[in-house]
Amino acid sequence: MSHIRSLACLTLVAGCAGAAPEAASVPPSLPPRASATATPPPPAPTSPSTASSATADAPPAKPNATSEKASPRAALVTWLKAHMPSGGEVVDEADKPVGVVHVAKAGELYELIARAYVELTDIYLTADLHKELRKANKLPGPKNAAKAGERVVIPAIVPEAPKSADEERLGWPEDKVLKGVYVRGGPAASRLYLEILEESKKRGMNLITLDAKDYDGWVTYPSKVKLAVESGATKNAPIRSLARTIRFAHKYGVRVAVRISCFEDEILAKFRGDLSIQAKWGKPYKIGWLDPANPGGQDYIIELAKEAMDAGADGSSSTTSATRCSGSRAPTSSSRSARRPRSRSFGTSCAASMR
User: Fold this and answer.
1) Beta strands 99-103 and 88-91: pairing type?
2) Residue 300 and residue 268: Cα distance in Å, rounded?
3) How confident is the model at residue 70 (pLDDT cuts 50, 70, 90)?
4) Whole-structure pTM over 0.90, yes or no?
């Protein structure tokens, strides 16, 4: 999890998780050596019930270390089952890649089937998966809907289960130099995204700054942060899965720093006036800004940044703009931050953070 150094800054922190050293094993104490002249006692008679009890009380053999961790294939099957749409089946046959089949309902459109399964595949866009699905199932041109019980093969299933967020991150490049472009949410959900990644790789660029929340307050992916959901900031999210969008960038060797506009937020400022900058007359100052000194506004930004890092982002890019704000009430002494000077000019500030 990234440590956010400044709410009004772009934070980029390099870090590598080191493996914790294993505790040295201490051999058990050996029993004292028996005297050479000691006479061993005669063996006690053993009844069948005693022998059976001794066997039952013996500690079980430790399982092989390799059996404790699921194989990559088993992990993939488990992941597919956990994310399988209704009607889907995993096909796990020996000497063949793991596959998926959809048992269709009468009149079910192939395009909608492709949309339901696209996140289980190596194909980024639903339209492209729809084309491949038609080829894989040898569907004639005019046929758009499936018959009841028709088994539709889903092509291009991912070869392995997604990694954890920490495993997914690419970390700093060897030369510690980041070169990249800014990508908004709309293009990131279109064919243009793959073109950007391809061209970035060709030109030796290794970073995109991807919009997670813009200054208008819209969140570009289906966030689960409570305020984002309640305020409706996610209802027009163009990106279906932030984690998947990040994984596709990583395939091209391109890192992702998510951009979060901190306190300029028209949606949340309207939805939660108590989080807005307060005017001298005791009401929200209607400029579309959250109060940077308000703990609720601070926590919202922090939760979005944490969510992005949990999705596998390599860093977070948090920005804030200064704007004219005369007539606002200064923060109280109980606020987290110190008194904030009023701004008389426009400007931007940002800082960088990478894991």
Assistant:
1) antiparallel
2) 10
3) confident
4) no
